[in-house]
Specification:
417 residues; alpha/beta; Rossmann fold; Alpha-Beta Plaits; seven-stranded parallel beta sheet; 33% helix; disordered N terminus; binds 1,4-dihydronicotinamide adenine dinucleotide
């Protein structure tokens, strides 16, 4: 039984140009270009997501798969893809993939968390200026054939305070850009962060809310950030200030925000993400915010630019290539991470196993008993899976692989020449 399992788990020793890469959902051509450059010339692209038999057929021989958010990779689908070595999500989210099932099958999943950072930062910067000038309301009045020429509630951003909640990749970038416009930048984060420029860390969220003319949210969706801006926090914000949320819809209590806008405690808001977002472009958008002229509503497009699509294509392709050519799993979302040096002049054996005690000892005993010298070895584990990488002389490649695959708890073995 073990033998059968192990023989199934040996990946065919295909060269790069023989390995099939399948890209679904109209992934940007920058990915194809990068893959070809990385030696992967057998690339098949599909403009749309595939489902059912079509998806299974497309995956039957695929070594690498690229998807965006629509393709659902369930455990059952993955089980049909017997040669699949890695998955690239050419987007930010990865909840369309059964990450646990992929991990247990020895398949790392990669994504592109930071390729659209600049796009979000630029949009937020534009929103800050628009809100401080009261443009959304003025624009709406003109669309209804009105005319309100007034400087009331219209301010320069220079010298005003921007409060950034979540000083990560996006938050930091916005801080730098806002300072260039002459804004004072304060931030709050649960991690200790090095302030860029003259940004000032606040003692806590409440202090930031009280001090800011514009508050911009850039935190992830976690239990701790759920409704982190609600009735109490909105009341702490300065009268006449503005709120921007381009992070995740669950972070703001929308009814509380609507009440704060209704009472004119807040002068405006820009909201790109919502607790419940329509499934597609044919769906109807419903929100208590649609009635406010002083709210900029955008359909979760903070990171949606041509430049971001190009970057995402390149970033995820680079991660697939690095795993395919070198074995590195750095930034995989479901897998033990290993950053590996080059293995010039040697063969590299990859051994993915269940993380049970004694596997590494077993691996080394097997190779030692077969007289195979280990030139270099790297190991990383998570609670469920272990990933060991072993560099051996070319002459020992086949025998080394055969030995490795007889180790109990083996999930998968691969060779990189
Ligand atoms: P990041 O991971 O680089 O930064 C997030 C920061 O939030 C980290 O510094 C973290 O320590 C901090 N944080 C976490 N929990 C916190 C809490 N309870 N209080 C204060 N700080 C907290 O993430 P990045 O790339 O800057 O993205 C930020 C958000 O923007 C994410 O929610 C992401 O999903 C969203 N996003 C939205 C896009 C859009 O199209 N609107 C596009 C890209 C990202």
């Amino acid at each position: 039984m073990n033998q059968a399992l192990n023989s199934k788990s040996i990946d065919p020793a295909l060269g790069r140009s023989d390995q099939l890469v399948v890209l679904l959902e109209g992934i940007h051509p920058s990915a194809v270009e990068a893959l070809r450059h990385g030696g992967y010339t057998r690339v098949v692209t599909h403009a749309k997501a595939l489902v059912g038999i079509e998806l299974r057929a497309a995956l039957a021989e695929a070594s690498f798969l690229g998807i965006r958010s629509r393709t659902q990779l369930t455990k059952e689908v993955l089980q049909q893809a017997s040669q699949l070595a890695a998955i690239g999500c050419f987007c930010i989210g990865t909840n369309q993939v059964d990450l646990g099932a992929a991990m247990h099958m020895g398949i790392p999943v990669f994504n592109a968390p930071f390729s659209n950072t600049r796009s979000v930062a630029e949009l937020v910067l534009a929103q800050i200026i628009m809100l401080m000038r009261g443009i959304p309301e003025k624009n709406a009045v003109l669309h209804r054939s009105g005319w309100v020429k007034s400087a009331e509630n219209s301010y320069e951003v220079r010298g005003k305070t921007l409060g950034i909640v979540g000083y990560g990749h996006i938050g930091m970038q916005i801080g730098v850009l806002a300072e260039q416009l002459g804004m004072r930048v304060v931030f709050h984060d649960i991690e200790t962060k090095l302030p860029l420029g003259n940004a000032l860390e606040m003692a806590g969220l409440n202090e930031l809310l009280k001090a800011s003319d514009v508050v911009s949210l850039h935190v992830p969706e976690t239990p701790r950030t759920a409704n982190m801006v609600g009735v109490v926090q909105l009341a702490l914000m300065k009268p006449g200030s503005h709120l921007i949320n381009a992070s995740r819809g669950t972070v703001v209590d929308i009814d509380a925000l609507a009440a704060a806008l209704e009472s004119r405690h807040l002068h405006g808001a820009a909201i790109d993400v919502f607790p419940l977002e329509p499934q597609g472009n044919d769906s109807v958008f419903v929100s208590p915010l649609t009635r406010f002229d002083n709210v900029i509503l955008t359909p979760h497009i903070g990171g949606s630019t041509s430049e971001a699509q190009v970057n995402i294509g390149r970033e995820v392709a680079a991660k697939l290539i690095r795993y395919g050519n070198n074995g590195s799993t750095t930034s995989a979302v479901n897998f033990p991470e290993v950053a590996l040096p080059e293995h010039a002049g040697r063969s590299r054996l990859l051994h993915i196993h269940k993380n049970v005690p004694g596997v590494l000892a077993h691996v080394n005993e097997k190779l030692s008993a077969a007289g195979i010298n280990i030139a270099a070895q790297y190991l990383s584990t998570n609670a469920d899976v272990g990933y060991v990488v072993i560099d051996v002389d070319h002459a020992a490649t086949q025998s080394g692989l055969a030995e490795l695959c007889t180790v109990p708890a083996t999930i998968r073995c691969r060779i990189l020449y």
